[in-house]
Specification:
Largest sheet: none
Number of strands: 0
Structural class: mainly alpha
Order of helices and strands: HHHHH
Radius of gyration: 15 Å
Length: about 150
């Protein structure tokens, strides 16, 4: 967040998460000249990262024309982005969290994240998919997923 601070307890924004993923992938060329999202402007630090993530089906945005770069990334969003970035396609064992329903956009990602130890629930019966992630939590998830 500055030259000498990381701010581990701050919420991690969607722009920051996608930038972390893009950098971990070696900052690949996004192979696209324009962002499909009206709220991702050329010159923003996350511009190429979002274009890359959209082009590689890691994100589809929060709707067809918005990415919502400054929104805090939820637990459901981060495990979904990570699973897509890792190109996971197999089935993972089902989970029994009372707040994660089969058919939700993040169900398979939660199954993947718990199978591979990227993250567990917030307690034995809850995943807390709508809870925001801190920067420390996100980099921990990234670290745990790096060799998958």
């Amino acid at each position: 967040t500055s030259d000498s601070t990381f701010s581990p307890d701050e919420g991690c924004t969607r722009a920051q998460v996608v930038t972390f993923l893009w950098r971990a992938a070696g900052k690949p060329d996004p192979a696209s000249s324009e962002s499909p999202f009206s709220d991702v402007k050329e010159g923003a630090y996350y511009y190429n990262a979002v274009k890359w993530a959209e082009r590689n089906n890691i994100t589809v945005g929060t709707d067809s024309t918005h990415f919502s770069p400054n929104a805090t990334c939820t637990r459901a969003q981060i495990v979904t982005l990570l699973m897509r970035a890792n190109r996971f396609t197999d089935d993972a064992p089902k989970v029994d969290f009372v707040d994660v329903t089969d058919g939700s956009y993040y169900y398979k990602a939660v199954c993947w994240a718990t199978k591979y130890g990227v993250t567990l629930g917030t307690d034995a019966t809850h995943f807390s998919p709508n809870a925001g992630c801190t920067r420390a939590q996100v980099v921990t998830f990234l670290y745990r997923a790096k060799d998958l």
